[in-house]
Amino acid sequence: MTVPEHDDASSQLRAVTAAAGGTAHVHLVGRLAPETAPDAVAHLAGLLQGYDRVVVDLDELRVERLSLLAVLARAARDAGGWPDARLALVARDGQLRQMLRAAGVADRVAVAHGLDLALDRAERRPAVVDASWTFPPEPEMVGRARREVDRRLAAWAFPGDPEDVALVVNELAANAVEHAKTTFTLTVTLDRTGVRIAVGDRSPLPPVLRPHDPGAARGRGLQLVDSLAEEWAVVDRGEGKVVWAHVVPGWR
């Protein structure tokens, strides 16, 4: 089976794609540049949603700058992240493999010097895995967000207590629904240090950590987050904010 070639508008980058069984093989040919990167991400993300795994040969890829290599990992994240999206990169050139490591790509997707090794590594959880979801500001979405994270932590074989993460997700999502009242995006990232939970919404008003009040019926969510997370913070992003927390196994 051969999938039609994908070309960006300027024909500076081609993705020559063939598929066998549940694996799609892609040869990226041409120049990876700011104007060609979005098409490459969209094409790879689409393939990752349709095949068990996608292997990308980078031998004929020219990279305009190091930071652009990060789009290869973004394609896997946009397709749902590992293990739903299993992406492997074949880079036979040692300098290119070094560039992939320097750009952090090798931490997020499988990188190897040959096809067989790339396929084998695609089955293993990368050092850094993440997943992202966008929800409407509806109360029932808090439970759905928690369930999505529970499912993903199980797939990742998270070594800590998933209940700690679930409680943090619950509180940050509930704050977005109750106070921001806007669509919110939840991103969960697992790396060697622990889990980072980030909830972004469109309200500029930051949450407030109130003093402990045993008689208060509400308003203790951030106190819980503060007790479970090694650290947390609010980041102003202009048209809204991101509240993030870092949960480290065995920290408490």
Please give a structural write-up.
This protein has 8 helices and 12 strands. The protein has 252 residues and is of the alpha/beta class. Strand 9 (184-190) and strand 10 form a beta hairpin. Helix 1 (37-50) runs parallel beside helix 2 and helix 7 (162-180) runs antiparallel to helix 8. The radius of gyration is 20 Å and the shape is elongated. 38% of the residues are buried. The model is unreliable at 1-10 (pLDDT under 50).
List the main descriptive attributes of the protein structure presented here.
alpha/beta; five-stranded antiparallel sheet; 8 helices; 12 strands; elongated
Write the layout of secondary structure elements.
Elements lengths: L1 E6 L5 E8 L2 E10 L4 H14 L2 E5 L3 E3 L6 H9 L7 E5 L3 H9 L2 H4 L1 E3 L2 H8 L6 E7 L4 H17 L5 H19 L3 E7 L4 E7 L19 H8 L2 E6 L4 E7 L5
Parallel strand pairs: 3-4, 3-5, 4-6, 6-7
Antiparallel strand pairs: 1-2, 2-3, 8-9, 9-10, 10-12, 11-12
Helix pairs in contact: 1-2, 6-7, 7-8
Short description:
It is elongated, with a radius of gyration of 20 Å. The chain is built from eight helices and twelve strands. A hairpin with a 4-residue loop joins β9 and β10.
Specify the overall morphology.
elongated
- On the 0 to 100 scale, the average pLDDT is 89
Strand count:
12
Give the topology string: H per helix, E per strand: EEEHEEHEHHEHEHHEEHEE
Percentage of residues in strands: 25-35%
**How big is the Rg?**
20 Å
Which regions are unreliable across 5 or more consecutive residues at pLDDT < 50? 1-10
SS field, number of helical segments = 8
The helix-and-strand class reads alpha/beta
Biggest sheet overview: 7 strands, mixed
Helix percent band:
25-40%
For the record, give the distance between the C-alpha atoms at the N and C termini, rounded to a whole number.
53 Å
